[in-house]
User: Fold tRNA N6-adenosine threonylcarbamoyltransferase from Jutongia hominis.
Amino acid sequence: MEDVLILGIESSCDETAAAVVKNGREVLSNVISSQIAIHTLYGGVVPEIASRKHIEKINQVIEQALKEADVTLEQIDAISVTYGPGLVGALLVGVGEAKALAYAAHKPLVGVHHIEGHIAANYLEHPDLEPPFLCLVVSGGHTHLVQVKAYDSFEIIGCTHDDAAGEAFDKVARAIGLGYPGGPKIDKVSKEGNPHAIEFPRAKIAGAEFDFSFSGVKSAVLNYLNQCEMKGIKISQADVAASFQQSVVDVLAGRAIAAAKKLGEKRIAVAGGVAANSALRQRLKEECDKEGIALCYPSPIYCTDNAAMIAAQGYYEYIAGTRSGWDLNAVPNLKI
Ligand code: KG4
Ligand code: ZN
Assistant:
């Protein structure tokens, strides 16, 4: 079979990204223009600023992705783009750009689900990984346990009832004065803290053994901080961070392993920004080794938002015959 080159475009939140991927697996280029510096000034992502930055950067980012891959737009087989879920104004920039390029260059257009892209990030560095497998998707907006039945067939086994895991990391980081983005900062300071210093809750959902809830642990941290302030006790940022992280990691790893055992899945993949968390990786590795379950996760650069993962998923949809029409639109709350 001839090589298939996909140009991926991603703009669902605060990264403007473009990438060229060969046959769904080999990254020829992966360009990411991050807006973190500007959103840090506001303590979180400001949607309108995100859209404005995307429109400013997107052409440059795509040009660079083609250049680094040493290909022209003519050599690309199809253009894949994230069309949801995400911030509507941010998504529209990528979708509009992808449609214009596909129309002008007479290329097929493939709209990709952002979370399915996060899952596909695992294909980029694990050539032997093929469905079926269980995927723990943990990002800023999503916490899902997904049974990946085929490259384009997914079943949600569990999901969060309130905050996403990454959202809880970001909120707790802000409360203890670490700032935005919280996940990587909590990960770092936790290394100096005692994960057993404070007992934060690990919520269970009655009647839904693989679902999650993180608003309780977040409130427990806020209560703890208020209590300390009232009593004039100086908190240890590292102990609070490590204890909070321990609680989240216990729940994520515990549910993922339990679901894999119940479903008879022999392989767990992890995806999304929180998959970069070192404590989560370590715990899952230990638990999977004990249970004889294979574990894989992407390098940190492919865990957080990028377009290589969108090109990877786009490839599998393209070869399965999926095509988006010229009426493709952004769908901010797109379901898997
Ligand atoms: O997947 P992603 O880049 O964007 C979304 O689609 O949401 O995930 C971003 C989330 C943020 O909440 C960020 O704090 C979290 O991933 N994150 C981490 C780490 N790196 C990023 N959380 C915990 N530990 C990390 N090392
Ligand atoms: Zn994401």
User: Anything to note?
Assistant: Residues 13, 139-141, 166, 169-170, 181-184, 187, 272-274, 276-277, 304-305 surround KG4 (ligand 1) (CB under 6 Å).
